[in-house]
Amino acid sequence: MININGQLIEDEKANISVFNRGLAYGDSVFETIRLISGKVMFWEDHYFRLMASMRIMRMEIPAEFSPEFLEEQFLKLARANNLEDSPARIRFTVYRKDGGLYKPATREISYILSIRKLEDAFYTLDDSPYEVELFKDHYINSGMLSTIKSNNKAINVLGSIYAQENDYQNCLLLNEKKNVVEALNGNIFLVKGKTIKTPPLSDGVLNGITRKKLLEILKDLEDYNLEETSISPFELQKSDELFITNVIMGIKPISKYRKKKFEIKVAKDLLSKLNVKARLT
Hints:
single chain, alpha+beta, D-amino Acid Aminotransferase, Chain A, domain 1, D-amino Acid Aminotransferase, Chain A, domain 2, about 25% helix
């Protein structure tokens, strides 16, 4: 079952207009949300990020879009798919209502919710070989639009094809200043000694929820020195550890970049702390 504007519809009967602005113009934002046994993980952070993204995109926020209303839509969809007691991934897509390029764009929105089952309720460490490379064919523009989760993902798609064609598991994206911004599917963290770096949002970094949670965790730890600062590609091979974060996989260690092989120590430590934080939400 899929939820379209609050109405549950069977998958094979669900459809959208060929004039859908998300399809035609990339006029859409979305949230990827983890559901654990009927509980929305980090829901407050997702909610406020969604509201901020909609405001940046000049979308009208419906009066009923309260945290309670949207959470009930998630749970209703989970129940309809017999996933209320299982870990699941929800994609919540908001798009502007139909209208052509040469017509005044409306601010009114529609939304779609889809769901699929996940294997694990909480995060587990996947330490399988994971090699990355820089994707330099195209660049992310630093600025506010790059920080939101929109469906304008051409660079990510092309980067994933490059990775597949060259036997890499992922690629790291650069901005127009040639600084490392993020991976194809998540934020990037670099470890050197006791210092942990991650690029600032001003570099065009996606405002990731797991990134935010790790920043909260690290600010309370005396063992590490946290820096939100631009990362040069030259720093990658000098680092002890690299890892990627997103709300579905949690933390994914990078094992190799070019000739450099990395440790998997800090990622393991932080993953346990992230799971604790997730259980307390």
